[in-house]
């Protein structure tokens, strides 16, 4: 006989085929009933889906219920947190998952203690470093549903899951999901099929004395009178059931001896759909998410640390509000993109608001710092948010009436881009003395690449002055056919419609291609169209531009593609011309090539991929994950007939992907691109997959019912024209083809450099909207800084994952998180933090015992004082 530990819970989708506003309305009655039931039945308890955001929103409706919530939490009847939202765990930055817990726990402290359980019941798979991330936020466990196969990965639902390094957690799987016993009833049929049926399903893999039994479902209310129902069920069942909690069941698992250990990701659709190809749908949402993550991590959070150092006042709650908008959009359905179009519009609007707030924060901090430094119009504040001095080309913005300027402190400077503003007459200017009219002169907005050295997490004031000759800029060198760029590392040549590379004396024809095929899938999954195949998108024209130290190829193409799925199966079907271009940038002193692809998407329901053929035979793949790389992550296609979806050989990487053998390595840096396939020694990077359906039945790669409930009784099929991803779309990336085998340290160092973002500010008066809030930031007396440059950190040799102000202390403290993506210890020299009173903590800023060593494939957080 098995004991079922019944945990009463609801899974609360913030948005899906309904909006967050709809979910809020539904919470009014459901959450109020939870409080009533728990107060009437002291033996009962309830888990509020482990996300604090839904409790915050409910208490905005019923602030008078806050005291009731606090009392029920204190009595361990109501369990909240530790997350802010139920996040995706594959498509987000590892730092976003950490912020999700930081913000969630921080919110929970208002009401009581957060539940110490890593409960993530519905996410579409998990990256291999989840144990490392969970331990970083003070959790030693995970409860999850999707992605496991007991015949291939681990033979029991209860085991230890180990990250790529030493960190491991207790893992508890719920094989039939959080909804395995919904709408609990006491009939014999329900007990046999639902309650005992679930226990028997779990026991078929391995007999267990204790099994976790979640009771609830999507947006479901609390099970009323649970104790009396279980008493009745126990009279009729062959097993025994009792009221329990997730923390109680964790303790039962910890008592088990000789738990098996698993290492790797969970993305197999053995018992539930995992939607392996959701990583390429609604790419506008995914790219917006990546750009906001990077802006917050690489710009805004380090800027807050500098603001505190220089006594610039700005509420840290603004930073929390920005993160909350991003985290709300990272919920698994939201970021995945399997939502109705009106929900997608809400998600993109949140990203828009978050970006505006982030830009505003940057504007305020940089302008106030410029005032403290008494910047003139011929000076530019250049900020380096990396934690080490950088001597490189910084991209800065200059407003000038002429290109005839020079930078005496810089080793080199050239114009990367320009925009001209024409002169305007009779322009109003208001001064304290009155109103005046003047002629506004013509001026230029210049993006300038300036080579100089800037201290780590610091700034430099850069002067510029008039010159007798204009700055260098890109010049058109050649166009047409047979055009090449080259440096000491590689040659890239476009000739006769083919883009080739010459590397180590070997010519690689068709080194880069674009390919297209139909997408018969929906917002959950790509699926091939029966009878369709992938075709090349031809290029036909090239242009070369160069400066003294930089070259680029711009390759243009266009082709007529079938308008929609029916046209792909009809030789006389309707076609539309699709135009596209690829740009490849090369610097003289680097083997890294920066690239972009632009596509004016005018057709429907198709997939476009970027293909690289680096001629690496029998190579191994290395997918980037937080603090590590997952080697040869291939799907075992044996015994998959029972899977509810085809386990497509399409994998997810986080920022980096490498293909290497002992002689040659190809490193790709995705800039928001996430999905790839390794086939026939080539790397296929998905740019996007467009679709016009929320959910479709009977796909080639996913037979049977439609995902998203669209074929359930009472539901309807729903079109999603916004998911067609129409219009001009752009994708950025970088790559490096080099000699030697895969070098995990070098990949991380290159990633750090190309991920850095330069911040610059010029105190100019020609255009108040270059910095959007400039003319509304009020003048006030500022304490002056007699500095021309300054820096806060010099962590040479260390990889920094994040720098941000303390979220839990009001004193002037900040956190530096270090990452080690290699197999060797990284020792931290104490002099790095001299005078800063370093304390080793976890991400919740709880002090831990550690000897200033970043272990292999691990993270280490250090709390510092100014």
CATH topology of the largest domain: 7-stranded beta/alpha barrel
Q: Structural class from helices and strands? A: alpha+beta
Strand content: 25-35%
CA(first)-CA(last) distance: 60 Å
What's the number of structural domains?
A: 5
Helix content: 10-25%
* Low-confidence sequence ranges: none
Task: Note the total helix count.
Answer: 14
Subunit arrangement of the protein: single chain
Q: Could you say which overall geometry the principal axes of the C-alpha atoms support?
A: globular
CATH architecture verdict of the largest domain: Alpha-Beta Barrel
- Average predicted confidence as pLDDT: 96
Describe the structure.
It is globular, with a radius of gyration of 29 Å. It is α+β, with helices and mostly antiparallel strands. The strands form twelve sheets. It has a ten-stranded antiparallel β-sheet with strand order 21-28-29-30-31-40-37-36-33-34. Helix 4 packs across helix 10. It folds into five domains: 257 residues, Glycoside hydrolase 38, N terminal domain (7-stranded beta/alpha barrel, Alpha-Beta Barrel), CATH 3.20.110; 84 residues, Glycoside hydrolase family 38, central domain (Substrate Binding Domain Of Dnak, Chain:A, Domain 2, Up-down Bundle), CATH 1.20.1270; 110 residues, Immunoglobulin-like, CATH 2.60.40; 179 residues, Distorted Sandwich (Beta-galactosidase, Chain A, domain 5), CATH 2.70.98; 60 residues, no CATH class.
